[in-house]
Write a structure and sequence with these properties.
The chain is of the alpha+beta class and 165 residues long. The chain is built from 4 helices and 7 strands, in the order E-H-H-E-E-E-E-E-E-H-H. Helix 1 crosses helix 4 and helix 3 packs antiparallel against helix 4. It is globular.
Length: 165
C-alpha cells in the first residue's frame, strides 16, 4: 500500500443507544484525545462555544517520539446531526488527512463508524517516506494501524459513555 493511493481505514462498533444520544459524543472534538497516544489537546479556534458546524475550525496539538510536538488546524466539512460529523486536517483542498464519524440506526441501537483517509498535504509521515522511500509501504501501514488503534479506543469510549446514560 502506497501513500499515493490515499489509503483509508475505518472501525465500526455497535452501541446500544439511539443516534441522538451518541451525536454529542462523536461531535465533541475533545473525545478523541482520550483514545489517542498521540493527540494531546483539541480546542475550537473559531466562533464561540462547543457547537460544531460546517466551516468551523479547531486546533489539535499532538506529539510522538519521532517528531516531537506539533499543531494542526482542522476544518469541519460535514455536520449533519445525528448522522455525520467530518473534518479535514490542514488545507481544505489538499488536506493531510480526512476524518468522519457516521451513525446508522440498527435495531435498538446504532452502528458508529469512524473513517479516515491519508491525504497529500504535508505531514510527518511524508518526511519519513522521503527519508526512507524503500520503507514507504511499512510506514503507511504502521500509520494506518496507529489510527485504527486510536479509533477503536475512541469508539469504545463513546460506547461506554452512551450506554451508561
Amino acid at each position: 500500500m502506497r501513500h499515493a493511493d490515499r489509503p483509508c481505514t475505518e472501525v465500526e462498533l455497535y452501541v446500544e443507544a439511539p443516534p441522538e444520544r451518541i451525536w454529542p459524543l462523536v461531535s465533541d472534538i475533545r473525545i478523541p484525545v482520550e483514545g489517542s497516544d498521540e493527540l494531546r489537546t483539541v480546542e475550537w479556534s473559531s466562533d464561540e462555544g462547543d457547537e460544531p458546524k460546517v466551516g468551523r475550525t479547531f486546533v489539535g496539538t499532538s506529539a510522538n517520539k519521532y517528531f516531537g510536538e506539533w499543531q494542526t488546524t482542522s476544518t469541519v466539512t460535514e455536520c449533519d446531526p445525528p448522522r455525520t460529523f467530518a473534518w479535514v486536517v490542514g488545507d481544505l483542498d489538499e488536506p493531510n488527512s480526512s476524518w468522519r464519524f457516521a451513525l446508522r440506526p440498527s435495531g435498538s441501537g446504532t452502528v458508529v463508524t469512524q473513517w479516515a483517509r491519508l491525504g497529500y498535504g504535508p505531514s510527518g509521515m511524508h518526511l519519513g517516506i522521503r527519508a526512507n522511500p524503500d520503507k514507504e509501504e511499512r510506514i503507511v501501514e504502521r500509520r494506518l494501524e496507529q489510527w485504527r488503534a486510536a479509533m477503536r479506543a475512541t469508539l469504545e469510549l463513546i460506547k461506554q459513555r452512551a450506554e451508561a446514560r
